[in-house]
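Reference record
================
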Amino acid sequence: MKARIRKIGVWVEETHIEGGRSISPPTRKAVAAAVIENPHAGQFVEDLSDLMEVGAELGGLLGEKAVAALGIAPPEAESYGKSAMVGENGELEHAAALLHPKMGAPLRVAVEKGVALVPSSKKRGGLGQDLDIPLGHKDAAYVRSHFDGVEIRFNDAPRPNEIVVAIAVTDSGRPLPRVGGLTHEDAVGEDGLR
């Protein structure tokens, strides 16, 4: 099954000043999101494998768009996350089917490597509702400077029979991190933790 995409949005957020201090180069987060038709809205369907396939398709498409929006090569991506919001006629399990079984592999290709779990969230919402995408280091989950998030919204989505699916990628961690722990520079990235 191919995703029935109504629209795609791409955002780049740059932080130039934090806590009154200049950030140079600025920290950057990109989000690519798609508004898709939910083929199972308003009905209970046992087999959600079609949504899993759509998740794989969107993992590659949105991951590539987010990396391109940052203007970086895939290995330069430092953190990632994914999220989905179903409209009122959808189930949270529809979001889970998109995000979990198959989305990660093509996203990891888009960011080159990515051995850490991809942070995720799912929710139900309506037109103009904010969607938060959690972020974590792509290769080492213990890198605290990359525990973060980013928020997006479409003013006209999700409609009751739609799902908003988003992938976020960054080229850095939070601005001015000071909570200690493993650093990006010291991360080995073999076990997904350190």
Q: What stands out?
A: The first strand starts at residue 5 and ends at 18. DSSP finds three helices and seven strands in the chain.
